[in-house]
Every structure is written in C-alpha cells, then in structure tokens.
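Reviewer 2 asked us to include a model.

Predict the structure of this chain.
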Amino acid sequence: MENNKFADVHLHAWTYSVLSLFPNLSNCKSFDDIYETLRAHPFNGWYVGVRFNQEYLKEKEIPSRQLLDKWFPDKPVVLVRTCLHLAVLNTKAMELLGVYEDTGTFVESAVFDIQEMVIDRANVGKADVLRNGINSLHALGITKFIDMNVTKASIQVMHDIPFYTSDEDLLDEAIGLKIFLDGSLGARTAALTEEYSDDPGNYGVLNHSDDELFHLVQVAHKKGKPVSMHAIGDRAIDQAISVLKNDMHPKDRIEHLQITRLDQIESIAKLGVAACIQPIFSKELPWAANRVGKRIETSYAWGLMKQYGVKLLVGSDAPVDDADPLEAADVVDQLTGNQHLDKDYVLKLYSSDNFEFYGWPKPN
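Predicted model (structure tokens):
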C-alpha cells in the first residue's frame, strides 16, 4: 500500500509553496525560540515565520504586535498561525503593506491577502515557487491534488491544476465554489453551539447567514458546480446540513468536520454528502479537548463517521499541517475509539477513493 500514488483533494498548493520559503515555527516552544528563528532567517528584508501554534508555546499566548515591534522596530515582521486563519504583523509590516489593525492581528481571508502582498513586495518569482512546492508534493507520492482556494492573485501560475475558488468571478474555471462557514478551532473562531470550554462566552463566528449561504450554494449549483463548505465547528456543520437538505449537488462536500455531534454524523450519512476529513489534524486532540471539553468524545471522530457510512474523502490541508499521507495514516492508526482509522484504510482513501470521487484514472 505504501508504494501507491496518492491524490490529496484538500490542500493549498500555492500557499504551501509560498510558506515553504519561510522558517517553520511549529517546533518553537517559546517566544524566545520564535525570535531566534526569525532573526536567523531574514527574507529579502522581511522577517516572516509560519505555522506557529501558541498551544505549544511556554507562554500559551499569541505574540503581540508590541512584542514584534520590540524585537524588530525598523523591520517588517509577519507571523502566520498554523491554521492560516490568523496572522500577526508589526507596525512596520502594516505600514509597508498599507493595512492596519490596532492589535496587529488579522484573521480569515485577510491572512491570504497578506501572504500575497508579502510575496509581491519581496519580488519572488511565482512560477519557480510553485514548481518547487509541487516537486515537494511529488516526493511524498502525491501525484494528483486539488488547490482549495485559488484567487485572482494566484490563478496566473496555477495552469492545469484543478481548484476550488471562493471568488464567483473564477467559478467557470473552477471545480466548484469554496465557502468558509466559520473559522478555526485554534483561533477560537470555529462556530460552536456551546461556548468554548476555555473561553466562556465565546461561541465562535458564522461567516454567513442561512439566507446568504443558500444564495451562494444556488449560485454554484445553477452553473452546474458543486460547493465545498469549510465547517469546523458543530454550529457551522448544522448550517451546512440545513442548506444542503434544500439544494444539493452530487459532488458537494463538507470540509474538516472537527467538532461534531452524533446526530450530525447520522444526518450527513443519510444525506449522502461527502465529508473531506484531515486525519493529520488528529494531532490536535490534546489541546482541542481543552477547547470543547466532553464534546471531544464525538469530535475528530473519523472512525465513527466510517462506522455510520459517511462518504469519506481525505486531504491534508497543507500547509496547515504536514502533507505526507503516510504520517496522517500513522497518526490515526495509533488512536482508539471514535477517532481511530486503520492505516490501510486511510491510504486507500488517498490512493483509490479520492480518485474515484472525481473520476480520475487510478495510477498504475
């Protein structure tokens, strides 16, 4: 099985390629580690670090704009959290990019915009960046993949790579429409029906009203295109189920489904909509349990989804986490109960089921 070629149907090829230019902060254990890593890796006059996770830092906090200003008062600094839904900029970076938030913290779509602006400012050859990123994916056995959020800024370098887009103007060229229903668990913006266990009073954020979401779904379906709904929290998943019950394309997908309830898993199986999961995210279980408490019992519950007959697809969401299918399979194979999936089953999703869903020829 490990010699198979894989299809990853949920990653961000352009972003993966871009972030490979910058130091990876995922192994940093403190603010001091982040500072030393940044200081040792300047990038064309910028100090950019990616994939930090405050849950693994001694301080358990997101570095502030004031701290970045103290470290580099005259140089631009950008830190991108591992979820890609949050970035922190110092004052100099905001001045150069022409954006401003008093806290220096930017979330959701603004993070992708900032990455593009930094690349433009640094005068990087986009074609070479993408080529190197694709070569890295091929080295992992990933011979087919889908970029999940191509924009006008990146489409010029994507060529024949299949993609989803959140930009309606690009929908004719795309597989389908990507819709972000909520944010991320790490940034506490994933939409929950009950408050965050470690942040009382916070229920996360829904990005669209039900009517707005239904309109977006109809825009795609009227063009014969499916939708891909980013839904991490159970409140966002409720919204996705509610809308798809009224208007569904056979290739519609719900993405991530990290915080789920048993009734939702049953509804998704009955509805027949595909669920694209990221087994590699199961590494988050220790700190995710702090976010949702007892709800963790039916969260990251890929095994439970399989048991109830949910149509599963699989991806890495790279560069949010590692792209290696073998690592993802190992992670969930070592789990027990509702979160467990056999390693061979995960590799089958990568090497067979993903190909079948899109009608792609299976590799020899």
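The chain has two domains: 6-12+127-358, 22-121. The two ends are 12 Å apart (CA to CA). We have added this to the supplementary material.
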